[in-house]
Write a structure and sequence with these properties.
about 160 residues; alpha+beta; 7 strands; about 20% strand; seven-stranded mixed β-sheet
Length: about 160
Amino acid sequence: RDLHYPLRRQRQMCIRDRSRYLSLQKMDNKGAKPAVDLTMESRLQDAVLTGIRSGLIQSALPIDRGGIATTIGRSFSKSSIGARIHFSRKLTAPELLFGETQGLILVTINEMDLMEFERVCMNIGVPATTIGRVTNDGLYTFNEFIKLSVDSLLK
């Protein structure tokens, strides 16, 4: 089985300043753009390139407009694939699901490559954590907040 693994610690999953979530909720969406940590961004890119070149990373997706839940939802290409996500943070449900932040990439790795991938991240200085599994049940679950058939997302 494959694992979902976001690279880089989420200091703040921001929906308060500017986000797609605020725009869709018709709330004030005129806050300041988040700052970019160029040093960490460079390390993040190094970790991703190292993982791709060594065959550890099977897929990599930037977390952008709409946040992590939306990015995972957009990643499904066929209905037989699913994902079971458990992500624990001290955030509200909208912050966790739809928070947008700079320098966060979701990668998929094979479970057998977990230790090697963690070693790569540790050596480069990029925080990473496992948040879920790719499944073959056609369901997308994210904590207790989302439980959908992938078929419904593909329509």
